[in-house]
Design a protein that fits this description.
alpha+beta, seven-stranded mixed beta sheet, elongated, 620 residues, 5 domains, D-Maltodextrin-Binding Protein, domain 2, 53% helix
Length: 620
């Protein structure tokens, strides 16, 4: 009795559990089984159990699938989520509207990786050094559709100008990728490409010697410890399909993001949990560049063209008919136009002949006008330059803050600037001998003359001498010598030397044929002659004044009265001395001053500061 009752209770409980399980909806996660269904279940089954334990009311099931099985299941609405490699996800995203909700976090030792790449490898003793050296060699890879196992390497080689499908010998070895490394080591393939992490795993397991393998085109990426030849791309994504409930997808995403990195499901998957979905646009770009699905070129037949572009083709045909009819109409019009074209051509030629004659006349008139304008402009510019020079010359000689030597040096600087000369030298002529007076630019090393022979010719002819000099370095320069006349005889010579002909300087003013320049030069030379005479007189007065400064007290008293216009008798009465003594003092004063009259003696006394200006005026 009791045993029967217990069996009834167990049967009832079992039926309850079966009915409850049947009532829970099944959430199917399609997983790409690239290593077989058993390996896929071992790797991802704990993740499904983790989701089922964390999200009540649902039963999660892992469905290992091939590429084609994915498409069949999705078309029949038999999948809710997909877990596959990045390239396959991009294909399903474009074809079925899959949306990623999380990205897998891979693990290498204690490093967490969310991106991966591909490695191109050869044997260390191989003569292949660069990507270009791979042309014509055998390349071992997974298959033509594998993202990390071939497509990334293909993009790298295509960027280097080499397509492995056409210019190499592919050797498809499938999974596991360990066989690709062994094929390279055994010499069955010249090179191979595998996903990042394969080499490190084989080396850590002691299955290969790392010194026997060499990586082509090695790259270094921040915080990425693995050997890599290509760029980095996001790890496997988990994506939901359009039919999947949004709240369920949100719960799955949150649960996966909360999975601990060291949890059993994460370790079983060989990773460290999940992160937010990364950007897969780089994967799109790789597939687009290599022409893989979903960017594979599809040949179009005439039937496809008609079905896809029927309306456009009809419109194009009607447009062609319309264009053809318009062309016929235009042809008829052209025939009419050609009949009148010959007559118009004849009239046009006559008109062109008249226009050409008129144009030639206008061109000649314009050329003459242009030359006249250019001549006037040059004349005005020269006149303006001359006026400016004369104004500066006037300002210079009227300045009271400069002594004669400073004024003379400033004048030479002005002349050098106006005439565009490289050097200006003022040479004194004393008893037929040449002595350098001053030069511009100023220098302590002063020559007696720039060209002594030409200076003597200038003094002999008492006119401007112009010459062309050839220096030792082969450069030509203009030279001009101008005499400075005073009272009909030359007292000085101005010498000018221009910069090398061809330099950007107004050296054309330094020419005897330039009338304005020569007038200005003569004016300045005349002033220099006058200044030279005044300078000599100043020196004579200075010498006399220096002698007068040594006068005795009595001689100074006599000098003051002589300057005042007193007679010898008046001076004798004022000073209480004899007239003969006054005459003796007067004679000594004239002798010491080196003059012959009282007026000149008075001028020297005033210049020397011995007598005030009032004494000079009274004498006058």
């Amino acid at each position: 009795m009791n045993g029967t009752f217990i069996r009834l209770l167990m049967t009832a409980g079992l039926l309850t559990l079966v009915s409850a399980a049947a009532a829970q909806p099944t959430v199917r996660i399609g997983v790409l089984a690239y290593n077989g269904a058993e390996r896929a279940l071992q790797r991802w089954g704990p993740t499904a159990e983790y989701l089922q334990a964390s999200i009540p009311g649902y039963r999660f099931e892992v469905v290992p699938l091939t590429h084609e099985a994915f498409r069949n299941r999705i078309r029949k609405d038999q999948l809710d989520f997909i877990l596959t490699n990045p390239a396959h996800y991009v294909q399903l995203e474009v074809q079925f509207g899959a949306t990623r909700i999380a990205t897998f976090r891979n693990r290498f030792q204690d490093k967490v990786l969310t991106r991966f790449g591909s490695v191109l490898l050869v044997r260390d003793d191989s003569d292949i050094e660069t990507l270009e050296d791979l042309r014509g060699h055998t390349l071992a890879a997974v298959n033509a559709e594998a993202f990390g196992g071939f497509l990334l390497a293909r993009k790298l080689l295509m960027d280097a100008g080499l397509d492995p499908l056409n210019e190499m010998k592919p050797l498809w070895l499938g999974f596991p990728q360990d066989d690709i490394v062994q094929a390279v080591l055994e010499g069955r393939a010249d090179a191979g490409t595998v996903r990042t992490g394969i080499l490190e795993r084989l080396i850590a397991q002691g299955r290969i010697d790392e010194h026997r393998i060499r990586v082509l085109n090695p790259q270094r990426h921040a915080r990425f410890p693995l050997r890599v030849s290509t760029g980095l791309y996001p790890e496997w994504p988990l994506a939901r399909l359009p039919r999947t409930d949004e709240e369920l997808a949100r719960s799955v995403a949150i649960t996966l993001l909360q999975m601990p990195a060291s949890s059993p499901p994460a370790e079983a998957a060989g990773g460290a949990g999940w992160t937010i979905p990364l950007d897969y646009s780089g994967v799109h770009e790789v597939l687009r560049q290599v022409g893989a699905d979903p960017y594979r070129p599809i040949p179009m037949t005439w039937s496809d063209l008609w079905q896809g572009y029927r309306n456009g083709l009809i419109a194009l045909f009607m447009a062609f008919v319309a264009v053809l009819m318009a062309a016929l109409a235009v042809a008829r019009i052209n025939r009419k136009l050609k009949r009148s074209e010959s007559e118009l051509t004849r009239h046009r030629k006559d008109l062109e002949k008249l226009v050409q004659q008129r144009t030639e006349a206008l061109i000649a008139a314009n050329q003459a006008l242009k030359e006249d304008i250019e001549s006037r402009i040059q004349y005005e510019e020269a006149l303006h330059g001359g006026c400016e020079c004369l104004q500066n010359f006037h300002d210079l000689i009227t300045r009271s803050d400069l002594d004669r030597d400073q004024r003379l040096q400033s004048l030479l600087d002005l002349m050098r600037q106006f005439f565009g000369a490289e050097q200006v030298l003022l040479t004194r002529v004393v008893a037929g001998q040449l002595t350098g007076c001053t030069q511009s630019p100023y220098s302590d090393a002063m020559p007696d003359s720039l060209q002594p022979e030409l200076v003597r010719r200038c003094l002999h002819s008492q006119s401007v001498v112009e010459a062309r000099l050839q220096s030792a370095d082969g450069e030509a320069r203009r030279y001009l010598a101008c005499p400075v006349m005073m009272e009909g005889r030359p007292v000085c010579v101005l010498e000018f030397r221009s910069p090398a002909i061809g330099e950007d300087s107004p050296a054309e003013r330094l020419s005897a044929s330039n009338e304005l320049s020569m007038r200005i030069l003569q004016l300045m030379a005349q002033w220099l002659g006058h200044e030279r005479v005044e300078q000599q007189r100043d020196r004579a007065r200075a010498q006399a004044a220096s002698r007068l400064k040594q006068l005795t007290r009595r001689e100074r008293q006599v000098l003051e009265r002589v300057v005042a216009g007193r007679s010898s008798k008046e001076i004798a009465r004022d000073l209480g001395i004899s007239i003969k003594t006054v005459e003796l003092h007067r004679s000594n004063l004239l002798r010491k001053a080196g003059v012959h009259g009282s007026v000149e003696l008075a001028r020297i006394a005033v210049d020397a500061g011995l007598i005030s200006e009032n004494h000079e005026e009274s004498v006058g």
